[in-house]
Amino acid sequence: MRNLLRVIIIAAAATVFAGSLIHVTMAQKSRDRFSHNTAAHKKKNCNSCHTNPTSNWVTARGFPDVADFPQHVACFACHTKDIYSGNQPAFCGSCHTVVGPRGKARFPFPVRTRTTEFSTIYPHNVHQDIIAAVDKRRQISVAHFVFASFVPADDKPTFNNCAICHSTRKDLPKFASRALDPKLRPLADAAPETFAPKADYFKDSPSGHDSCFNCHFQGLQPSGIECAKCHKLEPPSNPSATVNRYSLKFSHEDLNDRGETVHNRDCMTCHVRISQNADLKTMKDADVPFMACASCHADNFTKENNSRAESIAKKQPAFQCTYCHTTAIGRFPMPPSHKTQ
Amino acid sequence: MFRPRWQFFFVLVSLIAISSALAQDAPTGSLEVTGRIKIGKDTEKVTRKRFYLFRGGLAENKPLVDRLKSAKIVSRDCFYCNIKASREYIEWLKGGNCESPFCRSITAADIAKVPEFQAAYQKGVKQFKNKTDVATNWVTTNLSPELRDGFYKDRKAIVNGFLGDIKPVQSSMTDSVTVKAIFIDIAVNPKPGKSTETFLVSNLLPIEIGTKSYVWACEVEIGTNKIAKLTPAEAPETSKLVKKCEVIVRDLPVCDAGTCGPK
Prior knowledge:
The structure holds two protein chains of two kinds. By secondary structure, chain A is α+β, with helices and mostly antiparallel strands. Helices cover 28% and strands 9% of the residues of chain A. Chain A is built from eleven helices and eight strands. In chain A, the strands form four sheets. Chain A has a two-stranded antiparallel sheet with strand order 1-6. Chain A starts with a helix and ends with a helix. In chain A, 18% of the residues are buried. Residues 133-155 of chain A have low confidence and may be disordered. Chain B is of the alpha+beta class. Chain B has eight helices and 14 strands. In chain B, the strands form four sheets. In chain B, strands 4, 5, 7, 8, 9, 11 and 12 form a seven-stranded antiparallel β-sheet that branches. Chain B has a three-stranded mixed β-sheet with strand order 6-1-10, with no helix packed on it. In chain B, strands 2-3 form a two-stranded antiparallel ribbon. In chain B, strand 2 (36-39) and strand 3 form a beta hairpin. Chain B is globular, with a radius of gyration of 24 Å.
């Protein structure tokens, strides 16, 4: 029995030792994850693997686009050993849903559930300079012609530059109140909150090339084959899809009592620094200064400010500013920006 | 025991902490530049135009102002006239107060009317596998480089020439609703005895209104207690200094039969 046990242990050790001698490439270790960040891949030009457009663009996108994984020739040149390794080589799982000689089916491209290895380079300032919206406001007759700053809901202006990329959402995103300075202490416990924003409170951002290639497909730099000029290689990450706001109560589609849109103005009216921004990475939030809100809502703010001051003077629980904010924000002390306007 | 390395490290950390604290406490101001400008009897709305903010007033920025005064700048119509754009193309630009074909959507009617759009559309139909919607929406991808972004590159070169080594504090564009350019978080360092600092605001690139073009270079005092406001001075008939505003006025030449000249 002891001898049998010894034989089993020695055989197991020998098996493990023999297995370690089999060379396993990085590609095979990465069963279903291709990495742009390897030393070998970093040296390559994007066009050495990716073609633009791919042959399936008509059915996949309806416009010329990189709509599929690279062809086999992009991989075979370097990875022949990985491809012909074993019965169902793990290497092929990066692109193919079923790995095998007859397995043609591929994941949808790009695979959005995987980590991203790229950040986007997009200078808003350059695009604001080039694309100027034509603002043809309707004349609204009230005894005499008056140019109004609001428009009826059925005649909403579309701003040629911002609306190309940012449209009103139809699906509600994950949302949360923006985190405040951890050193701040709330003035009161949060009052019960029943408010919930709707989908059209939010604007979306491009998730594909459709709003880019209609200008940059060819000719205009960076063009559709200069991938690295818009997609910067970064360590893999899973960016959060949660929209964080100071004011969850703000809706881009708000209507006044007469049914007119009031917030669908020129985007730059509130996003005052967007025409200066050259780097998306520096945009930590919507960057709407308080003065942009106060230009229309000064009376509402004054009323809430007075209520806050009164409650503190009477040593009552601090009034929570909820005209613009949910209580997650509204119960905190007023920031300096609200005091200097 | 004397340990110079630790002392150096301590001093370095202290300096970093002090400069960081100073940066956080630096006072800031805000500025509103209105684009509603009186020109003759009318008040013109100068929308979607960029204004630049410089530290110092007219005197401190004299080299810049002198460059603005002496520059020879081709107008929009002359630029396109010189590259032999069709009359219809120039009219399309004028119709939307546009400077480039990216300014507004190009419709099927525009394509039918403007020869350059028609040629680009036809190229697109062949290239994009007879998908006419793509050929229409992507018309600019088949325009010639000069028509596509030649004017933008020309203006960018002009601005870079004006600026040289000067770095504007900020730049901002007037919006099309309030017709204001807003500047915020401007670091303000008033001289002793003053509560404001002097800045210069200029559009640098001529703004074309009617038959003339205008460049403003205006002084403004910015403090920390309230939002500074600036309305560029009423435009005179010819270039002159108006209430701390250098206003540079030029007549716009006219494009006629493919050549550009004075009206």
